[in-house]
Write a structure and sequence with these properties.
This protein is mainly alpha-helical. It contains 15 helices and no strands. It has one domain. Helix 4 (64-76) packs parallel to helix 14 (260-269). The relative contact order is 0.14. Belongs to the UPF0718 family. This is Permease.
C-alpha cells in the first residue's frame, strides 16, 4: 500500500509543472493567436508544415501530460489535422529533456537516434494517415456541455467577457483547463500505479520469446505504466535485460504517444470515432516501425 501511494503521488507531482505549462500555452493560443496569425506562421506547403511540426519539440520541453489540450487548441484555430497530430505525437519524444534523459539512461547514441527518428517518422506517418481517414467536414473535437455557453477562449459570453482584460481571462481559462486536465490525469495515474505495483518479473520471462510478442508486451507495459517521457528511459533500460532493441524502442516510442493517461485525455477532448482511429494508427505504425528494426537487430 505504501509503495503504491508513493508511486501514485510521485506521478502526479512530476506532471504538475508540465500540466500547468500546457494549460497556459493552450489558453494563450485560444486568446491571443488568431486563425490568420496561425496561417501566417505555418509554412504554406503542407509537407513543410508537417516537418516543422515534427521537429518543433526540439525547442520546447513539454511532455505528453500537457500536449493534448495544446493540439486541440491548434485544431480549433484552423491548423490542419495532420500538422496538429504530428505536433502532438512528436513533441513529447523529441523534446531536449527526453533526448538527454534517454542518452543518460542507455549511454548509447543508437538508442537515442532510434527513439528520436522513430518518433518523428511514426508521428508523420500517423498524422498523414489520420487526416486521410478523416472526412474534411467531420468534427473531431468534442464539445462538452460545460462549455456550451462559453466563447472560444473558454470564458462565458456577455458583459463578463468584455469587462475583463485578456490577461485575466487567459489566467481564468488556464485554471479551468488545468483542473479539467488534472482530473483525467489523476484517474489515469491511479490505474497506472496499480499496474506498476502488481507487475511481476515472471511475466517478462514468459513472454520475451519470438519477434512480435516482445514488441506487443513492451507496448502494453508502456501503455499501462504511463510513465512521463522525461523518465521512462530509465525504466526502459531496466527491461533491456529481458528484451532486445526492437521491443525497447516500441516501449520508448509508444509511451509518449499513447499511454493510459493520454488515452483518457484524448478521449475526453476528441470525438470517439476520431480517437479510436488515432489509437489504432498509433499502435499499428509503432508495431510496423519496431518490426522493421528486427531486420537489423535479429
Amino acid at each position: 500500500m505504501i509503495k503504491w501511494a508513493n508511486i501514485f503521488i510521485s506521478m502526479i507531482l512530476e506532471a504538475l509543472p508540465f500540466i500547468i505549462i500546457g494549460s497556459i500555452i493552450s489558453s494563450t493560443i485560444q486568446l491571443f493567436i488568431s486563425e490568420e496569425r496561425v496561417k501566417k506562421i505555418l509554412p504554406k506547403s503542407r509537407f513543410v508544415s508537417i516537418i516543422f511540426a515534427a521537429l518543433f519539440g526540439v525547442f520546447i520541453p513539454i511532455c505528453e501530460c500537457a500536449i493534448v489540450p495544446i493540439a486541440r487548441s491548434l485544431i480549433k484555430k484552423g491548423v490542419p489535422i495532420a500538422v496538429a497530430i504530428v505536433f502532438m505525437l512528436s513533441v513529447p519524444i523529441v523534446n531536449p529533456i527526453v533526448i538527454l534523459s534517454t542518452f543518460y539512461a542507455f549511454n548509447d547514441i543508437r538508442i537515442v537516434l532510434i527513439r528520436a527518428l522513430g518518433g518523428i517518422i511514426s508521428a508523420i506517418v500517423i498524422g498523414v494517415l489520420i487526416e486521410f481517414f478523416t472526412n474534411k467536414k467531420e468534427e473531431v473535437i468534442k464539445v462538452k456541455s460545460q462549455y456550451e455557453n462559453i466563447c472560444d477562449c473558454g470564458c462565458e459570453v456577455g458583459d463578463y467577457f468584455y469587462n475583463k482584460s485578456k490577461i485575466r481571462l487567459c489566467l481564468e481559462h488556464a485554471s479551468k483547463e488545468f483542473f479539467n486536465i488534472l482530473r483525467y490525469y489523476i484517474f489515469g495515474s491511479f490505474l497506472s500505479s496499480i499496474f506498476i505495483v502488481i507487475l511481476k518479473e515472471e511475466i517478462l520471462n514468459n513472454y520475451n520469446k519470438g519477434v512480435l510478442m516482445p514488441i506487443i508486451l513492451m507496448m502494453l507495459l508502456s501503455f499501462l505504466l504511463s510513465l512521463c517521457s522525461e523518465a521512462d528511459a530509465f525504466i526502459g533500460k531496466s527491461f533491456s535485460n529481458y528484451f532486445g532493441v526492437p521491443a525497447i524502442s516500441a516501449f520508448l516510442i509508444i509511451g509518449p504517444m499513447l499511454d493510459l493517461k493520454n488515452a483518457i485525455l484524448i478521449s475526453s477532448y476528441f470525438k470517439k470515432s476520431f480517437a479510436i482511429k488515432l489509437f489504432l494508427l498509433i499502435i499499428l505504425v509503432v508495431i510496423g516501425f519496431s518490426m522493421t528494426l528486427t531486420l537489423v537487430y535479429s
